[in-house]
## 1
Amino acid sequence: MDMHIAFTTLTKKAFLILASLAFFTPYVPAQRMMKTINDGWDFRKDGEAQWRSVNLPHTFNLDAYSQRNYYQGKGEYRKKLSLAEIDPAKRYYLKIDAASKAANVKVNGQVAGNHAGGYSAFILDVTGLIRKENEIEIIVDNARRDITPLWADFTFWGGIYRDVWLISTPEQHFNMANYGSTGVFLSTPVANDREGVVQIKAEVTNDASSKVRLKMRNCIYDAQGKLLQTKIQPFSLKAGETATVECRSDVIANPQLWTPEMPALYCVTTTIVNAKNGDILDEVSNKVGFRWFSFDAGKGFSLNGKPYKLRGVNRHQDQAPVGVAIDDEVNRRDIRQMKEIGCNFIRISHYPQDDALLDACDELGLLAWEEIPIVNMVPDTPGYEDNCETNLVEMIRQHYNHPCIIAWGYMNEILLIAPTPDKPEWPTVRDRTVQLAQRLEKRLKEEDSSRVSVMAFHGSDLYNTIGLALGDVAGWNLYQGWYFGELPHFEQWLEDQHTRYPHRPIIVSEWGAGSDKRIHSIKSRPFDFSIEYQQQYVEHYLPYIENNDYIAGCAYWGYVDFNVAARQESMPRVNNKGLFYNDRTPKDVAYYFKAMWRNDIPVLHIASRDWASRIGKAEEEQSVKIYTNLDEVELILNGTSCGKQRPSNYNTTFRVKLPKGTSSLIARGSKNGTFVEDVMMITFNLLPDLSCGDELAINIGSNCQFTSNVSQLTWLPDRSYTVGGWGFVNGNSRSTTSEIYNTIDGPIYQTWMEDITEYKVDASAGTYEVELLMADISRPSRQQANLLGKGDERASSASNRFDITICGKVVEQNYSPADNNRYLNACRRRYIVYNADGCIDIRFTPLQGKPILSGLKIRKL
């Protein structure tokens, strides 16, 4: 499918007066005025008596950072607004960039309008309501069930979390009632390296009581700000009329093409002029990018006629501690950071995001897929489908002119929680889902046939068999080797799809593995949340994507760790698959992508920042991984060379013996004559020695070590007992994704030994403090559907009760960590015992269910 066309930028900047774009034009400012009214609001939740002062952007869901059942309901906002004057010859509007997920607006006690949808802008005409002294009231509701999303793996942040604007225009102006857009739409019906043509389509409104003669003037500037041509189109409007005025530019010879590497932007200023006296009435400005693209089932993606691999990430918009109430600078910073690691593509998931993000994609150079948030299942709710279609139109019209956008999406994993085909309700749900998809696909093409349509599927063949594969491109969200299956099953799935549907373009729209900086393993495995397994996972997936032409590209899930109030796992309320932590600090694995994707610069990174403090045996070799695109790398430890190695798959691992204490590591090499080096400090401590007063902490049932980010104590991986050491004598290792309450060190309790009857620690005679950690998981909590069954493990069907004996003395009788109905709660109990036999022997006698043990900590007194 060939999209031989380029696109343009339509953003909040397009609303600003021409004075803000003086670089491009000498004309006097238009009469449009636009300003934010973000400060000085009052807020309260529904039912609260007390108002509190807030500024916008604002969300009322910071509770999502601390609890699963965050507030979903109504929030009330009000503001006093004083104006110097009200000009009877002007029109006045409120523009709200986003209010989640429904808003009702009053001005001076009268209804100004309402909006359904939490991620798109809307504009209300308040001309007849506004006066010098005003009170604006906005009620926002993030619990509406007729507005998507209803189920998703992200938090539905409530509030007015983007800007609110007051706009005034003359009586003749661009249409302000066009789904939150400016009413000006640009395209480039001719776009190649020899010539380019700009097509301008503008809706203009005359709110005066008489007919008026007007002109539409379009000035086109090149990427350096030079005026190339001016096109003038006369027209007339009757009183109260809105009409479409179109204009086509002359051919622009040899246009500078827009690419992510060189995002050349032209500018078009579109002006309404009074034909009688020459007064400027209204004006907007849009940036234009000349380029064309295509998706091909065999050759992948092409840009400007050349093969081009899409390399990107998915991005949610929250950042602690403000949630989604972020400033424009955050959006621009995020795009710069993506570009820094080599991204040329972004999937804006799973909803339209701020204009500032799209502006940055245009200006810095990121191709984009944008979508509306229809996720997991289509409900049978009156009004839901109509609202979905409206949200789709809003997204397309508001962001139509962005050169970055190549794809519109409208469903994500829509069958994830739908009933299975063996259930009686399946046919109804299936038909309802397919019908909505057909409706949205048709409307999408009516709105914009120049981009591709795309849908993201989870790993189920049902999308093919029931007719949901409607879009131009199939997006696959694949997690083999994480939630299910093994790593090679990833490429097996894609090859099977490509073989069976050889004419369907494919993009890997999601793939990722979680990681927790506190968790490390030299024997990493799926779903252990170790930093090391995430690295292993991406080092398997990414080369396959890069080296197979039929895959158009990918969007890694995700750019940052982000909030999901309902998530549990090792970091409750966080989806931790990010390449960056939520504060935008890069994980080591981000440099693997940078090494592979940035062939324009040398990349060299010692991938041990996430594991800069280690514990091990004396003289035991430690792994030091390096991500790099250099041909050869030398590692220097405390001034002594550890040799040189040639990387494979953009990484290499040195095996080194670290001395006790803090050491310096230096990696160095050169690329194309440029010398580079990377330096870091690493700390190595010996395994605890109880005889020396050290604490021995063991992460029972786990293959990973865990370091508390509060105490900095490291809990060592579990092992079976050998004479002279420590470990379990028997039992079965188990794990859960359920959140453990009343602890900040949840991962210790999320793994355990079940059916354990004995644990032994050989130690010299003396008095010891022995601490046992347990949590009863026989009542696991409900998990997100996105875990694909990964969180269904159960310890037993009943509470576990047992006796505990340490060094021959009974310390607990008929004990259960779930006493007083405290399931999923952390239990820590310390005992003072005397070891007379050279072994701290801990025994468990089952009474009901199975004895369990999650953690063990011992120190000599």
## 2
Amino acid sequence: MKAKLQRFFEISGFEGKGKVLLVRKIILTMIIICGMGMVLMNASTFNRNYVLERLETHSYEPVQIAGDREATQTFVAQKAHLWKAGVRLYTLDKTVLKGKVKAEIRDKDGKVLSAIEVPCNEIHLTKYDDFTEFEFNTDLKKGQEYVLAVRTEGSPKSDNLGVYMGKMADEQKDYLKGSTVYGKNTSGQDLRVRWVYQFLPVVSVAFMVIMLLMALIFTWLPMDWIDARWKRKKFFPQAGLNRIFGWLFMAATPFFCHIIMMRYYDMGLGAIIHQATRVPLVVLLNLLIYILVAWIFYVITNRTTVAASLTVLVASVCALGNYYVFKFRGTPIMFQDIYSLGTATEVAGNYSFELDLRIVYSLIFTIVFVTAALSLRMEKGFPWKKRLVGLLACAVALGGFYHILFNTDFLKNHDIQVKTWHPQGYYKRRGTALSFIITWTYNTIEKPEGYSVSAVEKVAAKYPSDSEKKNTIGKKSPNVLVVMNESLADLNVDGKIKTSSDYMPYIHSLKKNTIKGHCHMSIFGANTANSEFEFLTGTSMAFLPPRSVAYNSLVHTELANFTTTLKQQNYGYNKAVHPYYGRGWNREVVYPLLGFDDFISMEDIPESKLDFIRAKYMSDEGDFKLLKEYYEGYRAKNQSNPFYLFNVTMQNHGGFDAAKQGDIDRPVKITDSKLKDDQAELFLNLMKKSDDAFKDLTEYFENVDEPTVIVMFGDHQPALEDSFWNAMYNGKSVDNISKEQQVNRYVTPFIIWANYDIGSEDNVDISANMLGAYTLDKMGVQMTGYQKYLVDMHKTVKFVAGEFYMGDDNKLHRLTEESKYSKKINEYQKLQYNLLADTGHTVDSFFNLKKNGK
């Protein structure tokens, strides 16, 4: 036995220095075994949906089932697990129906295997609505016949409630075996049903296991013995199998990286190959990026296997990060997100990181590649002189690549771009690596056409700033509380959603001394700081580097804004309040530059007053209670100066997984079966809590004996699951919805409420960059010339957000298209550029109040 073991060591090359190689192979073997365990233990999470739906397009007729009547459909199980069945139900009117619809799955002997009940007033009612879905979640035997029975209980015949039926298509004859209504057979007529089965993709799981087994075999191949046996060195005197395989892995690296990246978009090998034949230049540029990265690692390590492994590992980590970022906020990683890395890591622990087939596929590809490459003997590459040549070649290649991307029109001429308003589709079509690099090219503020300081001064002359010390409207200036409410959104702007009760009843009911409507934002699901930046500064992210975070990349010196305007007319308190970590979005540095006298973060709030509702998220009720205490404390010390506070809430922050964040009471239920979603329902109940808290806040200041204005708006819509948004858009993905629907995804509610007469308006369209000036105008306080300009601009251009704007023609226009508003848009962009970019020539008198009346 000892002799055999010794012989094994000899032929495997594990003697002497080869012991290090043995240890490495053992470690790699353990990694491969862990990979197998990950695949097998998570197999149940890989389930995919198999959907069967009627393929006919011609008309179908309703059949009455109200009055405790029943319709049945005999069908042959196509898979072993029926998840749900969607049935098209109808009614002749929209009145509230009584009773319930009960759906059952029965076996051939009539035994009920699963039964689901839905109240009649919660179903989809017309043929233009989607299917009413019954989630059976029951195991069947593939190939056997079963019966779907649908009947009403407690529903009077007068309700005209029924089910649609039609002639079966030829493709359905294999699995639809007749139907009955009231116990009578229907000739050639079948229920309109969408069957959704779930199945485990056994081939995919087996493929991953086989790949891991092949990696395990390759890991233990005795390369030295094979070299000697086949006398490879006779044909390759300078290279053995280790060196040859090392260069083969190096050559395969860019292809593996691209496959791993694109697997996260659920693109299989066939789809990737098709993409390569359809847009070869795009794929080639992606591969070139990976080649450059691999070459950099090779110059550093001088080992092909190490360079290849590091490149694939980096690509895999980046792909995984991009997947989760997209999952949580609805947009992929862009270059500008690098500046927000600190904030991202702070909130990452509040999200649920689940595995699915795409993740595991890519991880297995990574494990197979890296373990196989590192199992080889690591041989040195070039001597140092050649490495210097390689380093020089690498620098030249990087410089050339940079020049082409940043200093030429190469990308533009080949129509290679990423529209960052809605980037996910472009990342899939252009490739992740190339798309990320493209967003890097957007990282500078573009000078507007025709910009000059004199052009700005010409506009400024038309809008002179008020004086710091001039009295306002002959009475005391009102207190003002600004509340930017995290993820506050009314989902009914995206599509009608039916609920058991109103989730924002108080806000919806407000009329007296209230101005409210739709606030158009430039972000969706994340990058909160950009919304507060737009509100405070009156500038739009539409003209800034896409996906940039202004607090991280732009605010480095004092900047005139909403706060400085109030401060210049003797407003007191002047504090920003955010009940979360203060270092997020660089606020600790930025807020003083925006004129705030102090910043109160979670670290500054006594533990006894931290009313957490989810994880470490402060409730709006607890947050607003603090605002009242801050007001009372200030007023007890200062009886003259008006009060100003800027508050960013935290209650509704993303990550709506109840198991991860903690659940809350849910009096509001989603009654629309196609939109039934646990996370969406949790979100709507959070909106109800925000609504209740806002009611309490306004009722408190209703009784305050001095004029007070409260403005509240949502920073962005919530990043809910893709499945919910797809259902909201009737099965369409967000890549395929209309531009009107796209714009609606960036709409949040705003409310300007006062305890004195400011008039009443409803359904006002505005964007966050105009809302601050609009609020000051309604308050009747002093305003800068720039703020007056924004108020005047709103009369003709209702909002500017993302890549769209809307004029008083009530039509959506892209920023790039010519319209009768283009001149005004260009003029606004010039003013913004003067404030943010051309800081050495900023027209200060336009962006600040006049000093001492001058």
## 3
Amino acid sequence: MNILPGNMRFGAGQPVKRLEDQRLLTGKGQFIDDKPEDGALWLHVLRSPHAHAKIISIDVESAKAQPGVEAVYTGADLVADDIGTIPTLSVFMRPDGKAMTVPPRRLLAHEVVRYAGEPVAAVVARSRVEAQTAAEAISIEYEILPAVVDPIEATRPGAPAVWAEAPDNIVAAMSYGDAAAVEAAFAKAAHLVSLDLVSQRLVPSAMEPRSTIAEVEKKTGRLILHVQSQTPGSTRDVLAEAVLKRPKESVRVLVGDIGGGFGQKTNLYPEDGMVAYAAIKLNRKVRWRGDRTDEFVGGTHGRDLTSTGEFALDAKGRVLAYRVRSVGGTGAYLTGAGSIIPLVLGPFVQSGVYDLPLVHYEVKAVMTNTAPVGAYRGAGRPEGVFIVERLMDAAARQMGMDPRTIRKVNYIKPAQLPYTNPVGQVYDSGAFAHMLERASKLADWDGFAARKRAAKKKGLLYGRGLTSYIEWTGGRAHTEKVSLHATAEGRIVLHSGTMAMGQGLQTTYTQMVSESLGIPMDKIEIVQGDTDLATGFGSVGSRSLFVGGTALAVSANDLIAKAREKAANALEASVEDIEYHDGMLSVVGTDRRIGLFEIAKNEPGARLSVDSEGEVDGPSWPNGTHICEIEIDPETGVSRVVRYTTVDDVGIAVNPMLVTGQVHGGVAQGIGQALYEGVAYDPEGQLLTASYQDYCLPRADDIPLIEVTLDESAPCRTNPLGAKGCGESGAIGGPPCIANGVMDALGEFGIKTLHTPLTPMKVWQAIRDAKAAAAAT
């Protein structure tokens, strides 16, 4: 971890309004689709209508003859041109002890298609409509093969194989803990609690669908790719080195404004590679814009984890052992993190904020004939926390305990910190019982009974949900690079490899630079999304502020140190006698001084510059307590969230207003996951939820007033800012909190579990079945 001077200031914790909003809300944003066409050709992707099939033949001659068509490409064309495949991290082992093996993910399918929506051919034409029309003239003969869409079914004997080299469809498996010791603890436990749980597959729903533009720069011959990417540096490297097989320096990736990322925009997609390939082949600017349906069928999905979780407890509610068996669906191809999400990231937090002495986790990553699964807000951590938090409530109900009491019995105590959890992850700080107590007061825990009685008078069921969550952040990349420049024009310019996508980085970074250097905020410029200027790890895993911000803090210190050296020479004094304050460098005890920007005038390029790297000691562990109250109309099954209170530990918040907004957004997505959203395929692999007519998102009137309180009592100890990631927390605490609330409301009927999303039909049917069962006894 970087050790920085104690007198440096890195943000005053002020709720500065977002600097980005004036530009974005007045139509001055620079999204890809805002770029002028400038004679660009349009690319359209033809997708497979089948979930699994051999490609017998493709006839593109009629399509080539269509008006406006410049080129038509197939998978065979790309193979002939030695175009590479999109890589994944093949670092795990299969259950048989062999290395994991996965089908190559090509830009266009070659010989076999493995999910409905897989790109099979691409048409490039003078207009988007001409490209779409010509694609309809492509004739493809398929031999349809059996498909499998359910990860559990995919592991059964005789299931269709997605990839012949993994005939059981198991990509890889991981095991954690001591199976024998856990079995022994279960054998002698006073109470056993078991739940079958599903974190269903979701479709990320950013405001801006994916789009791409590529062109070859005439002067240099370099490829310029405009793309939506949370990780511009790795996008450049994968495209250049793995797909196009050329030096990465020959590619420049530019990212403008992004209308939402949520983890979905961390990968290079086949469409991006095809646009780049076509631009090189034709030496023309080429662009592609996905429709919303392209996002549903061709973008990555999230979650898709099916688990059985079990607690063995003593008579006082202390968990003696914890056992989880999970199957994570990867889809037909593995994204970069496709196997890491279920096999590693979920287990990282699966024990939650609890001191659980014995665990045994078994996880399998399984292929199906469906769209690939990738990162989506939380990426594994929502799934892991969902299991332990649902079990905590189920155990409390079964044992007749207050859900707070059972958590207090099992919490990690302050004296145990730093605490190493069962899979070797170290929690550096936290005050878990304190968070629960504070949230209980703010949520008016004691007033719940009266509100429940009032709801009952109106014929409504009423329940309360509770969650104590923890989140692992950092993306396993603990360094970040930035460049900081003072210019002769009187401006400070920061170049960062992190990427804004709605979280307000321009504002927080500007705050930090302003505080550190004493320069007005309107004199500061934040530049991201240009691989020629900065190539950091990017923005994933809620790492931008605590890792990228650390690099910024280091660069501010480095710039002052360099300016002091320059000032010492100019003022003919020793460096030790030079002090910096608000853009001026002075000789201590004299009136001799020189301005930072005056120094910059005499530097090469008329700017004083430093390249810096920030390093943190490890991940951060934001955590908190969420409490909600739910009312259910038993006649319709409609569940409504009427109260939602959170207390969130994000360490030191640079801008509390932005953090609160991040929690709001995450909770909204958590409500969507718990009550509304869910991907459905039919047995043949056709996506049944391919539009918002069939895939339900929460609307504004489905979201209650969310009361967020930030707690700074346990600053992070792994970075000099004391900050913890915050972007995914709401989406981790939200789903189990809502689900627990619904199950609490349904408890009077003896209903113990329902799989999310808890739709009106599911809830109504469960109530109906419970009443029928009661009447029959």
